[in-house]
Structures are given as C-alpha cells and as structure tokens.
Amino acid sequence: MSSWTISFCHPADLAEVADLVNAAYRGEDGYHMGWTSEMGIVDGLRTTRAALLEELAASAQMSILLLRDAAELLASVRIERIVGRDGQPACYISMLAVRPSAQGRGVGRAMLQRAEAEGHAAGAQMARMTVVSVRASLIAWYERRGYRRTGETERFPYEDMRFGVPLLPDLEFVVMEKSLGDPKPGTTR
C-alpha cells in the first residue's frame, strides 16, 4: 500500500486502461475472473482505447484516475462533474476497475474514496453511480461504503455495443447515491 500512487490519466495511458477495464469487467485472458466480473451477464469488450479517448475529448468535466503499484496499473475509475437530480453539484463515478489479481487488497476502496474526494473538492455534494441490477454482491459492496439505492433505474443500452453484448434479458441499471456533504469553502461550482 505504501508504494501505491494515484494520478490522473493521460491519453498515452488509455490503451493500458482499456486492457485493465476489460480484464476487470470481462475476465483476464478470457478465463480468470474477479468477484466483480460481468462474465455470464455481458460479453465482449467493455471499452476500447478509442472509446475512452472520445469520452475524454467530449467532456472537460470528465477524468480518469489511475492507481499504480510501482509501474503496474492496478485500478482505474472514471469521475465526471454533473448536476444532481435536485440541481445540486454532484459527481458521477463509473468504470471502477481493479485488476482481478489485485482484488481483496483494498485497492477498489482506495480508488472509490479518492474519486469521492476529487468530486467533493470540485464542489460535489452527492456522488451518483449506476450498477447492473443483477450484480447483488457489487451493489452490497457499494452499500457498505455508504451508497444507497435511489429507487431509480435506467434501461441497459442493449443496442449500444460499446457496453458489450448482453447475455441476459431485462438488464437494467440501479441508480445509487452517497452524500459527500457540503462543498469545502473556496471550491469551484
């Protein structure tokens, strides 16, 4: 843990990030899967370097954080400044990915906390995220970190192959939120 560093992603990192995200979401090398894997739920790539580059170019409000142990990329998380459902400043946290071989070591928790801290420092009062509804263990993990289901759901984008090929019918996203408190004095809104 003492050798972990967290930094912002640069375009030169995106191929490595895409590899990490695909390993975490869809199984490393096609057979190793961590407890957060979507194997059996969604097939195919979760993202590509080109898709990540397009997302970064499209929004000045979005960034990706990277956690490394020495030179090895262990985790990433996407964070975006948004307006919450009540009009308050918020952040949307997504694509939290931990290399399957590094899971269970507190890496995901460290990345989530850093994403929340970055959002709060930028003025966010609330963190929002979506999780595929059938991923009960992952939803429970977020609940243990203070997230609560809002009662809202969003339709899974079956027609958008950027998210992969759904293997189950009637998938949807559960919307979850966590209060980050009032923004710190002097933050930008």
What does this protein look like?
This protein is α+β, with helices and mostly antiparallel strands and 189 residues long. It has a single domain (4-179), classed as Gcn5-related N-acetyltransferase (GNAT) (Aminopeptidase), CATH 3.40.630.30. The chain is built from 4 helices and 9 strands. The protein has helices at 14-26, 49-58, 107-121, 136-144; strands at residues 4-8, 42-43, 62-69, 72-83, 89-98, 126-132, 148-155, 165-166, 172-179. The strands form 2 sheets. Strands 1-3-4-5-6-9-7 form a 7-stranded mixed sheet. Strands 2-8 form a two-stranded antiparallel ribbon. It is globular and about 45 Å long. The model has no long low-confidence stretch (mean pLDDT 89).
Number of domains: 1
Give the CATH superfamily: Gcn5-related N-acetyltransferase (GNAT)
Profile the largest sheet.
7 strands, mixed
Question: Strand arrangement, largest sheet?
Answer: 1-3-4-5-6-9-7
Structural class: alpha+beta
Share in helix: 10-25%
Report Rg. 16 Å
CATH architecture: 3-Layer(aba) Sandwich
Q: What is the H/E order? A: EHEHEEEHEHEEE
Which geometry do the CA atoms define? globular
* Contiguous runs where pLDDT drops below 50 for at least 5 residues: none
Give the N-terminus to C-terminus distance in angstroms: 33 Å
Number of strands: 9
Query: Helix segment count?
Result: 4
Average pLDDT, to the nearest integer?
Answer: 89
Enter the CATH topology name: Aminopeptidase
**Amount of beta strand:** 25-35%
Overall CATH class: Alpha Beta
